[in-house]
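note to self: the first set is below, dont mix up w the second
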Amino acid sequence: VTYLKDKGITHRVAENGSEALALALADPPRVWAIDAQLPGLDSLALIQRLRQDPHFGLCGILVLVSGATAAIQEPYRTAGADLCLGQPLSMQKLATAIERLGGATPDTPD
């Protein structure tokens, strides 16, 4: 989390899918990083909901999955994810993926 902040990537953390959706309705993100094992509103349902909502239609969605195989990634891609990253992954790889999807929001100095 500190690494992302140091890279100028602003982020919010939610404990479950319902909380993530509520936070995003208040301030829609440009990129979602979703753990495939998200409790509550599960990750597939959350991705489908995001893709159906015009507030989030253009946001990038990356999913952190347990493996990099096509079989593991396919349901998330079908639901609307732009990118799946296998775990474990480095914070550098995560930051690069977020930046690639257009989610880097450099902190602006006063």
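second set (the one i keep forgetting abt)
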Amino acid sequence: ATTNLVQFALNSSGSEANVDSNTTINDGSYHFLCLIRTGNQSEAFIDLVSKGTADCTGYNTDKAIPLEIGNKAGQASRASSGTFGEALIYNRALTAAEILHIYLATKWRYQ
């Protein structure tokens, strides 16, 4: 069954750290999704509102596990049917001001 809930997951060597947003997105509108990892903590945001955190101690960037956006690794039944306007990936955690700038600079494209 489709739930339209947003989940952010970090996978490493068969285990995962999840931030379950408990937020349903099925209104046909643009939404800004963001996951920030700082040290051993990750935090998920939807439309600039924090939706939770997860301890990701021991989760390193594993190049053997492919990056998937809109799907849970290896689970085609969990694939998103939504459209992604763009994906930005940085090699550092962005500041709140940087995230706000990106949100405001891109929001007009999807209204």
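remember for set 2: The radius of gyration is 14 Å.
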